[in-house]
């Protein structure tokens, strides 16, 4: 979804006037356009609109007028997208944290969070998503024969960083690898939604952009191109959207009561790793689970091995301040931040969609759910 597209260019004139005019009086609670009148947006303060934007993953900068247009456009996109949703089909969300050596993904399955029937209203699920796969992949070593569903797939060895293992930058090689990766992911998980971490060029404090960030950006573009081409050829395909990491961090900072004060990159990384650790800790303990709000469920044995490995290393890091050996079973997970990023991204994006839908139906009062449902 193009959330930042100017509203006036993307919405017919009559509908646009309906959205922004406080004088408009709706004669029906379910307009033919498929979404309720958003006149309440024009009555809110800029601070309210910024809070609303952060709660739904929308860019929160700009004037009140810009925010109103951006949010209204997102409401319209939300309604149009959900017209094609089968409410009986579960969502299979594949969340990808980009990288060449450190690509990671999480696969989440959840009942359709709401009905597409605008006449009966939305039904919001209280069922958290179930994590069914959680992997790190060295893309440079990926082959078509890679089996994400095998038992061996959970035993992921330590992967060198891009800075210590330079790879030959050949567009044809990247294209071949990207095609193999995407087609294997599609055939293995049949995702209904694919969420991809948006890349940005970084200099690392230097005077030039680091080359590896350009490589990852090129690879990111190839994934989008392949997904678009496959959808055009087949006539169907998953919904694909990019997510900016900073918006995930901003959302989590408020929801997890971490605050929105400036944090260093190291502090942000630790926060994300700890949030996932708290989500997953005690997942097999019925008493512990009963006494807290669950944000994610854990699937069958294969992914549980991965979760156990994450928790073992997380607890070791927290108690010893080092790599952490911990105790108990679990896969060898190596770095925690990539795994944390892809899971946080997938769960956060899903919560954004539910909140967007609720705002379309209920207005600003839907944000009260954030105050009563915080961890």
Give an account of the 3D structure.
This is SAP domain-containing protein. It holds the Pfam family Ydc2-catalyt. GO terms for molecular function: crossed form four-way junction DNA binding; DNA endonuclease activity; flap-structured DNA binding; Y-form DNA binding. It comes from Penicillium angulare. The protein has 375 residues and is an alpha/beta fold. It folds into two domains: 77 residues, no CATH class; 231 residues, Nucleotidyltransferase, domain 5. It contains twelve helices and six strands. It has a six-stranded mixed beta sheet with strand order 5-4-1-2-3-6, with helices on both faces. Strand 1 and strand 2 form a beta hairpin. The N terminus is likely disordered.
Helix segment tally: 12
Here the CATH topology of the largest domain equals: Nucleotidyltransferase, domain 5
Shape, per Cα inertia axes: globular
The largest sheet, given as strand count, sense and whether it forms a barrel, is:
6 strands, mixed
Pfam families: Ydc2-catalyt
InterPro entries: Mrs1/Cce1, RNaseH-like_sf, RNaseH_sf, SAP_dom, Ydc2_cat
Domain SAP: 41-75
GO molecular function, one term: flap-structured DNA binding
